[in-house]
Write a structure and sequence with these properties.
Chain B: One of its GO terms (cellular component) is cytoplasm. Chain B: Its cofactor is Mg(2+). The complex is a heterodimer. By secondary structure, chain A is of the alpha+beta class. Chain A has one domain (about 1-85): HPr-like (Histidine-containing Protein, Chain: A, 2-Layer Sandwich), CATH 3.30.1340. In chain A, about 35% of the residues lie in helices and about 25% in strands. A four-stranded antiparallel beta sheet of chain A has the order 1-4-2-3, covered by helices on one side. Chain B is an alpha/beta fold. Chain B has three domains: about 5-25 and about 145-240, Glucose Oxidase, domain 1 (3-Layer(bba) Sandwich), CATH 3.50.30; about 40-140, PtsI, HPr-binding domain (Enzyme I, Chain A, domain 2), CATH 1.10.274; about 250-559, TIM Barrel. Chain B is about 45% helix and about 15% strand. In chain B, about 50% of the residues are buried. The chains are: A alpha+beta, B alpha/beta. The interface of A and B includes residues 18, 21, 25, 47 and 54 of A.
């Protein structure tokens, strides 16, 4: 089942350094194929740190997430948590 | 006026004076036309990735301990770049076309580095991250050694095109006077690390920096964002005066009045004055190995006496804890017959050598110490390393008594110092009550204690995660040691890296430690942390910390 969600980014760094690392790590930890991208635009593979940081997503931007696989729902929950938690409250 | 002044961006509001050392980590790629064994190159690449990951994990943990969790997070980003499937696919495809692994890596990263370089702000910083990861892999693939930034001569100012987070994390603020780079901005990793380490630094000085030659004297003025090349006397003086900025000179206590001694670990005489200048109340660990290393014959009694007396004179109102010779099978000393051992860390080291093969050396050292105790201004404390049994301790105490008797016979002035045991072995933790009954103090050496309690070699990257003093096993060992020491009227200190981490000061104060000793650079920070701690609350928290089961629970408890 393919699941989809659009999330507004909270961390000040956007999807850079620590939030991005946690984001990619979460994708790799789940049994699901995840793609991410702007609400209206091309999606990139979310398990690639390079692709994710190249999106240039900053604080306040929206990110569309599409997940496919047995843990689609769980991975989206976790990604939403990472994307909506201020960086200094983020825990691995 | 300086002979010339270069302008860049200041990273820290501090100045440092020193001598230029150029850092140029050049990597030479192999000949690209060389025919390669595809299978072998693929394996080499996979091995390099594994080793790089282990290195990054280790550096992340070391940085978290030394600098802070936030700064350490950059290594998580590097791990993700290292494992990026896009890179991996490109490298493997290129190897399969017959490219040597090093070139395949260089190409695969190059594409993305260029892509990020063209962008602004945070995106441009990602280019630096990718470069750092690429160079790490290339170094592993080409067998190049990393220039050892951790072992620079005292008073070095490091000049470089750029410094990666891994480079910067290696710099020892106690010896390095500062750094300056051609590229970089205030938010570059190097600048952030510099601030965390309170290291003078100026970044983004541009190409003009390349004209400053090795060995030149410079002032790194992090406040003005300038590099003064060939400073005049006034400028040098100003730089020296600024080094001791936010120092707390007086001794500190918690908000509810419990006094905690904050002391410095010292490895060489040259570190004594800077430690005092940073507000250290005393020396919690004076390593005496420097007296014995790098020479052809052992130091005589007078030389040792003078060295220790100088240390006592530097801290006239404080305490100096001198550790007797702690040498083991992993260092080579020409005039000592050190055995080659399969497990040097579990072998003949510390007090074990002093009691038997090096007994004569030990006696000489003790005589020097007893004489210095009588003549030096401060209070001498002598501590024995790696004690595991009461018998060893009693033999060491007897050696002190013998040295005193010997000096008395010869009519030489001497004084019996306070004696202590360094708690580094699990046995010492279990026997802490017996030890405390026989000596005046215990000092917990968390680096070795962690290594032995967790059975994790601190040099082994694969178990780096276990080498963390905030594992409940280690915290309980510390708690138990303090409890037993106090129950037997001994004071107890800590002289491992953990003591210098202001993030755990509340925990350590709560566990009941009377003294914390650390590298001098963190003394001001820990003094502030102590004065912000409320002892009664810290005690309750520490009690909870002693009951948790996992490291993450522990971190939650002490946050």
């Amino acid at each position: 089942m393919s699941e989809e969600r659009t999330v507004e980014i909270v961390p000040e760094a956007g999807l850079h350094a620590r939030p991005a690392a946690l984001f990619v790590e979460a994708v790799n930890d789940h049994e699901a194929e995840v793609e991410a991208g702007p609400p209206e635009g091309d999606l990139v593979p979310a398990q690639s740190m390079i692709a994710v940081t190249s999106l240039g997503v900053g604080e306040g931007d929206e990110l569309r997430l599409v997940a496919d696989g047995p843990e689609a729902e769980a991975v989206l929950d976790e990604l939403e948590r990472i994307l909506t938690t201020p960086e200094d409250e983020l825990e691995a | 006026m300086a002979a010339s002044t270069l302008t860049g961006t200041g990273a820290t509001p501090r100045s440092g004076l020193g001598t230029v050392v150029w850092y140029d980590p050049e990597i030479t790629l192999p000949d690209a036309d060389e025919s390669v064994d595809v299978e072998a190159e693929r394996d080499r690449f996979a091995d390099a990735v594994d080793t790089a990951r282990a290195e990054l994990e280790r550096e992340r943990d070391a940085t978290a301990e030394r600098v802070g969790e936030d700064e350490a997070a950059i290594f998580d980003a590097h791990i993700q770049f290292l494992e990026d499937p896009t890179i991996e696919e490109a490298v493997v495809a290129s190897i399969e076309e017959g490219r040597p692994a090093a070139h395949a890596v260089d190409d695969a990263f190059g594409v993305h580095i260029e892509q990020f370089e063209g962008m602004e702000g945070r995106m441009a910083e990602r280019a630096d991250d990718l470069r750092d990861v690429r160079d790490r892999l290339l170094r592993l693939l080409t067998g190049g050694d990393r220039v050892n930034l951790a072992d620079l001569p005292e008073g070095s100012v490091v000049l470089a095109e750029r410094l990666t987070p891994s480079d910067t994390a290696q710099l020892d603020p106690e010896t390095v006077a500062g750094f300056a780079t051609v590229t970089g901005g205030r938010t570059s990793h190097a600048a952030i690390f510099a601030r965390s380490l309170a290291l003078p630094a100026v970044v983004g000085l541009g190409e003009a920096l390349n004209d400053v030659s090795e060995g030149t004297e410079v002032v790194v003025d992090g406040d003005a964002g300038e590099l003064l090349v060939g400073p005049d006397e006034a400028e040098r003086e100003a730089a020296r005066a600024e080094e001791g900025a936010d120092v707390v000179e007086e001794s500190v206590e918690t908000s509810d009045g419990r006094e905690i001694e904050v002391a410095a670990n010292v490895g060489r005489p040259a570190e004594l004055e800077p430690a005092a200048a940073r507000g250290a109340d005393g020396v919690g660990l004076y390593r005496t190995e420097f007296l014995f290393l790098d020479r052809q014959s052992p130091p005589d009694e007078d030389e040792q006496y003078e060295t220790v007396r100088d240390a006592l004179d530097t801290f006239p109102d404080g305490r100096v804890v001198v550790r007797t010779l702690d040498i083991g099978g992993d260092k080579q000393i020409p005039y000592l017959d050190l055995p080659e051992e399969e497990n040097p860390f579990l072998g003949e080291r510390g007090i074990r050598r002093s009691l038997d093969p090096d007994a004569e050396l030990f006696r000489t050292q003790l005589r020097a110490l007893l004489r210095a105790a009588a003549d030096g201004a401060g209070e001498l404390n002598v501590m024995f390393p790696l004690v595991a049994t009461v018998e060893e301790l009693e033999a060491a105490i007897e050696a002190v008594d013998d040295a005193a008797a010997d000096l008395a016979d010869r009519g030489v002035d001497h004084e019996r110092p306070s004696l202590g045991v360094m708690v580094e072995t699990p046995s010492a933790v279990f026997m802490a009550d017996e030890f405390a009954r026989r000596v005046d103090f215990l000092s917990i050496g968390t680096n070795d204690l962690t290594q032995y309690v967790m059975a994790a070699d601190r040099e082994n990257e694969r178990v780096g995660d276990l080498h963390d003093p905030t594992h409940p096993g280690v915290v309980r060992a510390i708690g138990r040691t303090v409890e037993q020491a106090h129950a037997n009227d001994a004071w107890v200190g800590m002289c491992g890296e953990m003591a210098g981490n202001p993030d755990v000061t509340e925990l350590l104060v709560g566990l009941g430690l009377d003294e914390l000793s650390m590298s001098a650079v963190t003394v001001p920070d820990v003094k502030v942390a102590v004065s912000e701690t409320e002892y009664s609350a810290a005690r309750e928290r520490a009690d909870s910390a002693r009951r948790v089961a996992t490291r993450s629970e522990l971190h939650e408890t002490i946050q």
